[in-house]
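Margin note: ligand = SN-glycerol-3-phosphate.
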Amino acid sequence: MSQASTVLPKRPRPFQRLSSEDATQEALSTRSPTVVVPPKHLMAPSDAHEVATAMELARHELEEFSSPMSSPETPPVTNVTDKYAFAFDIDGVLIRGGRPIPEAIEAMKVLNGKNAYGIKVPYIFVTNGGGKTERERCIQLSKQLGIEASPGQFICGHTPMREMAAKYQTVLVVGGEGEKCRQVAEGYGFKDVVTPGDIIKDNPDTTPFRKLTADEEKNSRALNFGRVKIEAIFVFADSRDWAGDQQIILDLLMSKGGYLGTRSETFNEGPPVFFSHNDVMWSASHDLARLGMGALRLSLEAMYKAVTGMELNTTAFGKPQMGTFQFATRLLQQWRRDTHGIDAPPETVYFVGDTPESDIRGTNEFNKQSENKWYSILVRTGVYQEGTKPKFAPKATVDNALDAVLHGMERETKKMFKKALNLPSAKLAGAAIEKASNENMPTVSSKANEATNSLA
Ligand code: G3P
Ligand code: MG
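Resulting structure:
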């Protein structure tokens, strides 16, 4: 039995709570850890506490029962499980085309204590999406799902790129709405951030069929790009102008050392290109998946090959890259410590995703190298279409985020029963739970249904 579960958690750091209605980025950039909450949550503590205490007590007693070793003075319980946690993809799991998926709202309520055991389960968000600061995405998600959300539990596709700010001085940032991606990059510490708009403003002939709007003309910076050395290109979010952006990236790739208006004889003296993810398809408001940043990457590589005859090597961040899952592990550790004073890593992280090529592949591969278990759950509300064979096999496939949460909680309860009753298999534990439920002992399935019904 891991000691972690009986160690009295350190007093978590005090959090400031901001209403999602009037939370601003500035307010979110204060030093103390911040949580964005729906207005109605601002004053009210969640009502799961009492139930939570009882349930934790039961769990500890069960553990006491199963391991006589643990000392009689077990510390007081918390209502947060330290055994497992969840990590959620966003597009196609919680949100579709900017609108919340109804079951996702319920799933969050279950994780925040509205469940048979009244326990809270820590969770983080790991999206390949981006184009806004983590803080802005937090305010947005808090409003969409009616939950408390904090930048401390949020990873965008470009979040790990902040570690490159020290390496590159002048960088081109591509994608997203208006000036948003420049703000994100400057927020990460990149000193000198230029955009395609700045380049077109300097030389409108760069993109024959693309003229800047009045707004873009106003917001774009006047620079003489003949003298500006662009050291790296970062595609932070989905491009809103595939033709113009690819023209400008190609100009730089074929340039002499990153100076626009120059041409290299060898076509390999240009700056490196980094994509914040490699999703060829993603789940938006259309019924069928849409082309994503990974498709732009393929198109750029094909054009470079067509024009120069050479292969183009670019780097992608985001899921399924192991770097993003290592980043998620550190973020989850910090989040559980900050919010619940839990130090030890969870035994299991349930990763809920809709895209086999990024969510499931990444989780399965990370599970092979990670200290703890990463358990992949595929939902049917996004890219993955029922009846097709996912390229990377998940541990479980369920209809939606709510079913994913109940699946994980049921599995953990079976594990707990199996351990507590020293049963040789989860199957027997399931039978024990069943038996208990027939004897009207509260169990997951009946209570879970009750929980879901009570959520209606
Ligand atoms: O542009 C983002 C999209 O490709 C996928 O986002 O949240 O499903 O990882 P997400
Ligand atoms: Mg997704």
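The radius of gyration is 24 Å.
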